[in-house]
């Protein structure tokens, strides 16, 4: 039956009868929808969000998203560890069955109507189904080992249709898009649990072995239910709103917490207005999904902030996010930036009002050893620009209006939210804070509990000012173009200053200019419409310095050229500033960082030294890095030095070029030194989808090796091939670094005075659903020309000679002992030491390496190949054994079993046959943890 809506607008309604089975972890649900077709089109199908079914298999959008973020838990989950939805029946209000099916990603339910639903009409649908809850090891939702439950996005909700269907899959992004609905939930659950919800609890009664609650949500989206074995939530009633919360601060008194909650409530009310629902749910679970990143995530006993400040910021952020989520119904996947802008703008304002002197490092800013750091001098609110620039400097920033599921994780969680909040603060600085504040209050007053668009907020802002603010939505929000200005020159007269400002990126937004005298602000100006370069005349107030964006309200890309001294040429030179360890950027100094280093190889022994470099916490284009060390064993200086200039060209396609010059010197044998000098040029390519792990690189370098030999090695020193040589090396690398499927291949060309060679390598890894991993690698190399007479430049089967000095050998010249057992998988990739006749090839070589895990990190490996030397028939070689793959590519052991040598496991001195991989580079190891964010 179809009914017609007489007022032209109908409200979606749904009634649910739900029973939680604590033994099977299932919800038995009977749901009645009143579905209104508020569009101007007839509908033959309806869609419902079924996000609980996103946990059902490894092919859902949720599982694929996890794989992109290097999380394999859902991919490897057993059937009984997955959540899912089982549809029992779907009928209309005449009790006729309706055809239904899940769409491709399994978390959208499509229902085909028996009769067309006309525009402005309604119909009723009854659905009976079961929801098997997942354990909370994938996301915070589901159940935990203590018997607590967190239910969110757990029942069917109507997808949005406004002339087209908005069907968004669950990707763990907190952005369910559904129509605003009046909801009633009759909920039965065990008597051992305590209930908290964002909905109003109309009644709560007990019966033998259970409880019954009726929950109501008027003009709300999803119903959130938290069930705890212990009563954790308390109610705080303030003059303006009521909070239900379990956010605690053990070292902050309950009375103090109450006072702080009242303070937060007053601030929210004065900046937003009246909250339309009975209470606000402020939970620890919600906070953990969007925490205060940075120092606030340290264990509580070492956090550098006062307990009151920590508690208020934590409560404020969670409360504002909850309020906006429950009232401002933007499209959360396409227009999520506006709620983030308002939330973070209010966070900035709260700190400015109540904690204006709060430093980013808190109490650490006053402690000797910390207080000299630029990071310690930064105000708490400086973090917004700083963290946004972490991705901007890496050329990974994305426009605020980018769809939520297209943002890299760091942007989705941090950078874009901070840039959005900073954008409103920037706008407030330009047109006046009171105008932005009043626009936010007006927006909240007239659009809360309604579907709303960005254009609604834009129109309110534009009515609040006579200044042109089109730049904010056109350039700041809609593009990823960076903001970067510099003061090109200043012409000074007795009564005026002619200031020429250059727009380095072409982003046409306003820029502030501050006049300083003795480091105090004595003037401030705003200039706009600087498309390329403009000159402005301002009064001469005897400033000694002009600075762009001095208060750093504008998220500018580069502030190192923002100032201009008015005292003459000599005073404009930046002074050197030496700082221990890496620090934040200070645009007014030439910063040099130093840190002690300790290197090791078997010839130099332990070599302590000092590393000097200019790389700050934010990436910069030009970097130098010197690390002189002293080898006590050789009684000589060793180390390296390098210069690198990185130029980002675009977001996709050819996106980066690197120009480098490096040199290093060390010992490769006793009293034998090598020195390498290498100019290089490389280009990077990436796809338009920044979430993709695929990268391509084309590199060119010219490696020059100079060597001095010990007198005992004169046979090598007198060899015309050995002392000094130069090699031109070109390589194309194509890599897709996925955690489930890994593909990588390269083509490498080398040209030297007495040889030229070509090599190809392909590597593939596949992680199956049963946690079995297959590893395959193929290598083929061929000399195009070869006039050498030794194997120094030959292809190696098991241990390359590393004549380009690329590999981190601990003892590169060792042919016996523990250091000779170090393996770096390159060229032939064999693990066994075979007959000396076949360990090298001066003609061609082709090998295959494979491994397959038996249990967790225990694998079987096997290698096979052909080795061809000039004048000798090709030889088939093979080996096999056990691989202990503790951390792939970083820490592995290889235990040979059978090879051309026979049963190696039964042969004497077996310990000398074991090979190992070990990586000690901190940069390489930290990449394991940062890869999911960038």
Explained architecture:
- The chain has 934 residues and is of the alpha+beta class.
- The chain is 17% helix and 41% strand.
- It contains 15 helices and 50 strands.
- Helix 8 crosses helix 9.
- The longest helix is centred in the middle third of the chain and has 23 residues, at 409-431.
- 33% of the residues are buried.
Produce the secondary structure layout.
Blueprint lengths: L1 E3 L7 E10 L4 E11 L6 E7 L11 H8 L4 H4 L7 E9 L6 E4 L5 E10 L3 E12 L9 E2 L5 E3 L5 E2 L1 E2 L3 E2 L14 E10 L3 E4 L2 E8 L2 E11 L4 E4 L5 E4 L4 E4 L8 H18 L8 E3 L1 H6 L17 H21 E2 L6 H19 L19 H4 L5 H10 L16 H23 L1 H15 L2 E2 L2 H10 L6 H8 L7 E8 L3 E8 L7 E7 L2 E8 L5 E7 L5 E4 L14 E3 L3 H4 L2 E6 L8 E13 L3 E9 L8 E10 L4 E13 L4 E17 L2 E15 L7 E15 L5 H4 L7 E13 L3 E12 L2 E13 L5 E14 L8 E2 L43 E2 L2 E12 L2 E11 L6 E13 L3 E9 L2 E2 L11 E4 L3 H9 L4
Parallel strand pairs: 2-14, 20-21, 22-23, 31-32
Antiparallel strand pairs: 1-8, 2-3, 3-8, 4-7, 4-11, 5-8, 6-7, 9-10, 10-18, 12-13, 14-17, 15-18, 16-17, 19-20, 24-25, 25-28, 26-27, 26-29, 29-30, 32-33, 33-34, 34-35, 35-36, 36-37, 37-38, 38-39, 39-40, 40-41, 41-42, 42-45, 43-44, 45-46, 46-47, 47-48, 48-49, 48-50
Helix pairs in contact: 3-5, 5-6, 6-9, 8-9, 9-10, 10-11
Descriptive labels:
single chain, 934 residues, alpha+beta, 18-stranded mixed β-sheet, eight-stranded mixed β-sheet, 17% helix, 41% strand, globular
């Amino acid at each position: 039956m179809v009914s017609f809506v007489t007022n032209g607008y109908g409200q979606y309604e749904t009634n649910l009868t739900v029973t939680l089975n604590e033994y099977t972890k299932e919800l038995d649900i009977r749901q009645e929808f009143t579905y209104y077709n508020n569009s101007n089109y007839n509908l033959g199908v309806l869609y419902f969000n079924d996000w609980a079914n996103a946990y059902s298999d490894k092919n859902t959008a949720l599982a694929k998203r996890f794989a992109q973020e290097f999380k394999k838990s859902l991919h490897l989950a057993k059937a009984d560890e997955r959540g899912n939805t089982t549809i029992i029946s779907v009928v209309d209000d005449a009790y006729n069955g309706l055809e239904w099916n899940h769409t491709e990603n399994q978390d959208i339910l499509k229902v085909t109507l028996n009769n067309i639903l006309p525009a402005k009409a309604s119909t009723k649908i009854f659905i009976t189904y079961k929801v098997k809850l997942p354990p909370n090891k994938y996301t915070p939702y589901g159940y935990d080992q203590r018997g607590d439950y967190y239910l969110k996005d757990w029942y069917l909700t109507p997808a949005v249709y406004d002339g087209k269907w908005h069907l968004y899959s669950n990707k763990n992004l907190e952005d369910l898009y559904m129509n605003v609905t009046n909801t009633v939930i009759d909920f039965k659950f065990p008597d051992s649990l305590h209930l908290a919800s964002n909905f109003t609890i109309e009644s709560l009664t007990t019966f033998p072995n259970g409880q019954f609650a009726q929950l109501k949500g008027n003009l709300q989206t999803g119903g959130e239910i938290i069930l705890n074995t212990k009563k954790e939530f308390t109610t705080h009633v303030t003059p303006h709103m009521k909070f239900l919360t379990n956010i605690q601060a053990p070292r902050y008194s309950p009375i103090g917490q109450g006072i702080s909650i009242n303070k937060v409530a007053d601030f929210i009310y004065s900046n937003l207005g009246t909250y339309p629902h009975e209470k606000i749910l402020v939970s620890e679970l919600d906070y953990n999904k969007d925490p205060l990143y940075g120092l606030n995530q340290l264990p509580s006993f070492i956090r550098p902030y006062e307990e009151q400040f920590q508690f208020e910021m934590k409560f404020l952020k969670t409360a504002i996010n909850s309020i906006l989520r429950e009232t401002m119904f933007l499209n959360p996947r396409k227009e999520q930036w506006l709620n983030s802008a308002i939330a973070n703008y209010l966070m900035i304002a709260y700190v400015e009002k109540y904690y204006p002197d709060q430093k980013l490092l808190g109490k650490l800013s006053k402690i000797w050893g910390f207080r000299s750091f630029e990071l310690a001098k930064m105000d708490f609110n400086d973090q917004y620009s700083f963290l946004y620039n972490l991705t901007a400097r890496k050329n990974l920033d994305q426009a605020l209006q980018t769809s939520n599921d297209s943002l890299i994780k760091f942007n989705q969680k941090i950078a874009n939210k901070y840039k959005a909040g900073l954008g409103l603060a920037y706008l407030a600085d330009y047109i006046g804070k009171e105008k932005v504040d009043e626009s936010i209050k007006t927006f909240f007053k007239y659009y809360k509990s309604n579907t709303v668009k960005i254009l609604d907020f834009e129109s309110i802002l534009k009515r609040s000012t006579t200044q042109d603010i089109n730049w904010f939505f056109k350039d700041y929000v809609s593009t990823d173009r960076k903001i970067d200005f510099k003061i090109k020159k200043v012409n000074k007269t007795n009564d005026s200053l002619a200031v020429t400002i250059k727009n380095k990126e072409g982003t046409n937004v306003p820029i502030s200019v501050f006049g300083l005298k003795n480091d105090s602000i004595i003037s401030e100006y705003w200039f706009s419409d600087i498309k390329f370069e403009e000159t402005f005349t301002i009064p001469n107030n005897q400033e000694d310095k002009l600075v762009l964006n001095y208060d750093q309200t504008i998220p500018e890309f580069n502030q190192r050229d923002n100032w201009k001294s008015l005292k003459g040429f000599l005073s404009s030179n930046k002074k050197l500033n030496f700082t221990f360890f890496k620090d934040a950027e200070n645009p007014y100094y030439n910063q040099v960082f130093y840190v002690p280093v300790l290197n090791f190889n078997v010839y130099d022994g332990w070599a302590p030294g000092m590393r000097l470099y200019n790389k700050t916490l934010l990436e910069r284009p030009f970097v130098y890095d010197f690390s002189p060390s002293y080898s006590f064993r050789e009684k000589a200086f060793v180390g390296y030095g390098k210069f690198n200039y990185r130029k980002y060209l675009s977001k996709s396609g050819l996106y980066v070029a690197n120009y480098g010059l490096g040199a290093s010197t060390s010992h490769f044998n006793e009293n034998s030194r090598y020195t390498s000098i290498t100019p290089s040029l490389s280009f990077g390519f990436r796809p338009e989808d920044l979430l993709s792990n695929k990268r391509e690189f084309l590199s060119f370098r010219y490696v020059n090796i100079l060597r001095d030999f010990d007198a005992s090695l004169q046979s090598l020193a007198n060899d015309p091939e050995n002392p000094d040589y130069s090699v031109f090396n070109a390589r194309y690398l194509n890599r897709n670094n996925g955690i489930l499927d890994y593909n990588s291949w390269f083509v490498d060309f080398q040209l030297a005075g007495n040889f030229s060679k070509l090599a190809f390598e392909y590597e593939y890894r596949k992680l199956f659903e049963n946690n079995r991993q297959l590893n395959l690698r193929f290598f083929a190399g061929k000399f195009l020309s070869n006039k050498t007479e030794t194997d120094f430049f030959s292809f190696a089967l098991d241990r390359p000679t590393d004549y380009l000095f690329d590999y981190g050998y601990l003892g590169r010249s060792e042919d016996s002992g523990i250091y000779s057992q170090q393996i770096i998988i390159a060229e032939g990739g064999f693990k066994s030491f075979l007959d000396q006749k076949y360990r090298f090839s001066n003609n061609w070589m082709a090998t295959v390496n494979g491994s397959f895990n038996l249990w967790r990190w225990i694998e079987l490996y096997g290698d096979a190949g052909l080795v061809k030397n000039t004048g000798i028939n090709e030889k088939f070689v093979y080996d096999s054994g056990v691989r202990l793959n503790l951390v792939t590519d970083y820490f592995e052991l290889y235990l040979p079993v059978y090879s051309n040598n026979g049963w190696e496991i039964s042969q004497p001195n077996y310990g000398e046959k074991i090979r190992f991989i070990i990586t000690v580079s901190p940069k390489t190891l930290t990449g394991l943890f940062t890869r999911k964010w960038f």
